Amino acid sequence: MSDPANRPGDAAAGKPAATGSPTILERYLAEAVARHRDEAAFIRLVAAELPPREQPPWLAVADALATGDVHRGLAAATTGIACWIPLFASPRADPRLPTRLLQTAARRPHVAEARWLLLAYPLAISVLALGLLGFLSATVMTAFEALFQQFGMELPLATRAALAIRPFIASIWEPLFVVAGLVGLTWWLAVRWSAGSSVSTASFTRTLARLVAAEIPTDEAVLLAGRVVAAPALDRARPRRPLSFAAAAALDFAPRTAAILLDAVADCHDDRARGSLSLSQWFVGPVLLGVVGLLVGFITVALFFPLLNLVGALS
Hints:
Layout: H1 22-35, H2 40-48, H3 55-67, H4 70-80, H5 85-88, H6 97-106, H7 110-138, H8 140-151, H9 157-193, H10 195-213, H11 218-228, H12 245-250, H13 255-314
Helix pairs in contact: 1-4, 2-3, 2-6, 3-4, 7-9, 7-10, 7-13, 9-10, 9-13, 10-11, 10-13
C-alpha cells in the first residue's frame, strides 16, 4: 500500500502542512485562481439559483476568479472555503468541475440547520406547556377557585393539587424562564457535541475524500478539509473529531481507494446525524407533547370533578 502522505508535493508546501501555515491555503487559492478564471461566469449562475443568504460566498469566489485577485480569494475563503474545495480538487478544464460545484452548492449549510431542527421541536413543546399552564393558572383556575369558595365546597385531593399549581406558577414564573433558558442551553450543548459533531464529521470526511481523490498531499488535504468545518490543528497520528479513526485509517490506502473509503465513512456519519434528528422529531417531541396533554387533562378533570359531584348531589 502507498501512503498518500508521502506522495510528491509535500515538500512543495514550503513548510510542514501539519503546522497549519496560511501559506498552504494561499498557494492552493493562487493555483485555483490561475486554473479556473473562466469559471467565474458559471459560478455567478450557480449563486443566482441559491437563496439570498447563501449567495455571498459564491459571489466572492466569482469576483476573486474574475479579477485574478488571490488576496480577495483569501478573504472569501475565510467565510466560505467550502465553495473553493471543488476548485482545489479539479485540474484545468475538468469536465467534472461544474457537477462538483453544483453538488457543493446543493449541500446546504446543514451543521447549524441540524442543530436548530434538533433544538426547535422540544423547546417549542416546552414553551407551549409553560404558556398553557400560565394561561390556565391566570384565567380558568382562578375562576374555578372563586366558584368553589363561593359555594364553600369540600374539594377532593386531586382538585386541591390542581389548584395548588396556580400560586406555585405565579411564584416561580420569572425563575421558570431562567430554568427554561438553562434547559435550552443544556440541550444546545448536547446537540453541539452529538448530532452537530456527526454532521460536521460527515462534511469534513466528504470534503477530505474529494481532496484525496485529487491526489492532494494528505496533510494538506486534512488541513483544508478542517478549515471547512472550522477545526484546525488536526493530526493523523492522534485522530480527533472531525477526523475520525476510520477516516485516518482510510488515508493509509492509495488515493482512489482512500476516497471511496472516506465517502463510506461520511455516509455512516450522515446516517448517525439523521438518526439523532429522528430521535428528536419522533421520540423526544411526542413524549413532551404527551406529558403536556396528561397535565392539561389532569387539571381539567380535577377542576370539573367537584362540579360533577355537586350536580349529582343536587339531582
